[in-house]
Amino acid sequence: MSPARTDSERVELANTALYEAVERGDTTAMGELWLDDSGADGIEVSCVHPGWPVLRGRAEVLRSYALIMASTDYIQFFLTDVEVAVAGDTALVTCTENILSGGPAEEEGELGPLVGQLVVATNVFRRVGEQWKVWSHHGSPVLAGREDEEDGPDAADGPAGPDGGAGA
């Protein structure tokens, strides 16, 4: 018999389930993970995908994920720097999304070129009964390297390099 999970562990599992639903292109699972904002308590879900405006309301948020999943041939998330904080019925997860995605295929039946991207994310959850539901997601692209990285003399310039062009 396994020990009961803590709230932090349950929140981390819910957070992982969010990314797994996107990887599988599972719109049904995605719908089950998000908070229902149709109640009278005034709660409205929100989402900011990197480069997108704020999306408000469950229908708009779920529609955005359906669009992303339908137009992405392959995507995989490797979550790092995961931090979970729980305060009562609300939880905050911050993490780095190390994303590997496939572009459009050049020939039918083949995966297009793979592209990597780093996004820092904040996911807010609310407890509903025994489950933790996503209340808000905010993802921002990582455009600069961290000061503690020692990749060379120009590491502080970030991945774009000092002239703003694409890095190696």
Structure description:
This protein has helices spanning 7-24, 27-33, 58-70, and strands at residues 46-48, 55-56, 74-87, 90-102, 114-128, 131-141. It is of the alpha+beta class. It has one domain: Nuclear Transport Factor 2, Chain: A (Roll). Strands 2-1-6-5-4-3 form a 6-stranded mixed beta sheet. It is globular, with a radius of gyration of 18 Å. The model is unreliable at 152-168 (pLDDT under 50).
Give descriptors for this structure.
alpha+beta, six-stranded mixed β-sheet, disordered C terminus, globular, 168 residues, Nuclear Transport Factor 2, Chain: A, NTF2-like_dom_sf
SSE blueprint and pairings:
Elements: H1 7-24, H2 27-33, E1 46-48, E2 55-56, H3 58-70, E3 74-87, E4 90-102, E5 114-128, E6 131-141
Parallel strand pairs: 1-6
Antiparallel strand pairs: 1-2, 3-4, 4-5, 5-6
Organism: Streptomyces stramineus
Protein name: Nuclear transport factor 2 family protein
Region (Disordered): 139-168
